[in-house]
Amino acid sequence: MIRLSGIRKTYGKVTALDGLELDVREGEFFCLLGPSGAGKTTTLKTVAGLENPDAGTVTLDGRDMRGVEPYDRGVAMCFESYALYPHKSAYDNLASPLRSPRHRLPADRARQRIGEIAELLGISALLDRPVGRLSNGQRQRVALGRVLVRPARAFLLDEPLSHLDAKLRQQMRAELKAIGAVQRTTTLYVTHDSVEALALGDRIGVIRDGRIVQTGTREEIWYRPYDTEVARAFGRPRINLLPGTVTPDSGFRTADGKVELPILSAAAPGTDVLIGVRPRDLTLGEGPGHRLTGTVYVTEVLGRSVEVTVRLGEQHVSLVAPRGEVTALRPDDPVRLSVRPENLLLFEADRPERPGRRIDHE
Ligand SMILES: Nc1ncnc2c1ncn2[C@@H]1O[C@H](COP(=O)(O)OP(=O)(O)OP(=O)(O)O)[C@@H](O)[C@H]1O
Fold it and tell me: How far is the CA of 58 from the centre of ligand 1 (A)?
């Protein structure tokens, strides 16, 4: 539905988009996730027609958008820096998109629509207030309302929750998901927050240095990350990545030999690799799967669970366990760990020029 192919955009010497390929399907809620400067906003502006690419094509519903003015593209965009009329009321700010010739609604329909959106965003009680006298978070919700109020072919949302506090953000996340599901409008949603992307995205596109490095469902990105950087971007505490080499008998071994695991990979013996396991996939004690032994290094309470860092020779791994299971643990206590083979990820070693790619293994 939204298709970007071979998009290149430079600003002077800076390459913002470097051959970007992106395909957002009809009705899909697609999250574009990446660090600051990766090219997320430039991607949205290119779809909206606010930036013209140096090369590549943008198509919406199969139609090439070259030369089509932003206004005629039928997409609604919400910027991080929201453009509202500060002296007008929240209501008038929401009503103004419905007054444009293209989207004009009869007065009673407009009132009804604004009422619904205000309800959804929890701003019904603020509609009479001038926007200049609202808090940042309230203003952000009005800005989002301005985008959602008129029917559009697609919504383009640029970090719409970034100014909200954690609690409100969580609540709005759930509401946004509901709005997306109800309206079934194709949504391209930009965020640098992986929790948000996992919560909202039907699919996620990971962007880095102006290119999409991986597109997939949350399961695909989680279980089959393209490289170590994608693996590190998702999940807190972060994935454990232990450096070692492939042994002649198709195993993995750290330099000091304190961690040995079977991996059944096609990688040649002697290859430098990283083995990845997420903290929640490591179990304390003798569970099913492979066994490891180490000593407790440090424990840190994370609410109802505890992060336990375990020393395995020269390496450390962290795991997350229920609080009740680990209250007796003290530094230097010996512990056994287990991990299911299917929860081990194998990567090439990181290199200065690029993060290690995932290697298939059984
Ligand atoms: N108008 C501009 N003039 C010059 N450089 C720009 C301009 N807009 C963006 N850039 C540069 O292009 C690159 C991509 O910027 P972009 O705003 O798309 O990143 P982003 O992923 O949205 O980052 P953030 O999360 O910080 O908003 C950055 O290096 C940025 O400095």
Answer: 19
CA of residue 41 to ligand 1 center, whole Å: 7
8 Cα–ligand 1 center, Å: 13
pLDDT of residue 167: 81
8 Å CB contact between 225 and 214 = yes
Using a 10 angstrom Cβ sphere, with 0-12 exposed, 13-18 middle and 19 or more buried, the burial of residue 99 is exposed
Q: Whose CA is nearest to atom 31 of ligand 1?
A: 37
Domains of the chain and any CATH numbers: 2-229 (3.40.50.300), 239-359 (2.40.50.140)
Give the predicted TM-score (pTM) of the model: 0.90
Residue owning the nearest CA to atom 28 of ligand 1: 37
Q: Distance between CA 247 and CA 276 in Å, rounded?
A: 17
With 0-12 / 13-18 / 19 or more C-beta atoms within 10 angstroms meaning exposed / middle / buried, residue 20 is buried
Mind listing the pLDDT tens digit for each residue in 251-287? Answer: 999 999 999 999 878 889 999 999 999 999 999 998 8
223 CA distance to ligand 1 middle (Å) = 30
Tell me how far apart the alpha carbons of residues 187 and 180 are, in angstroms, rounded to a whole number. Answer: 7
Report which residue type is found at 24.
V
Residue with tokens 């809620």: 29
Task: Pick the residue whose CA is nearest to atom 26 on ligand 1.
Answer: 36
ipTM: 0.96
Q: Is the CB of 192 under 6 A from ligand 1?
A: yes
**Mean of all residue pLDDT scores within the chain:** 91
Compute the distance from residue 17 Cα to the ligand 1 centre, in Å.
9
CA distance 126 to 142: 9
Which residue, judged by its Cα, is nearest atom 5 of ligand 1? 11
pLDDT band, residue 81 (cuts 50/70/90) = low
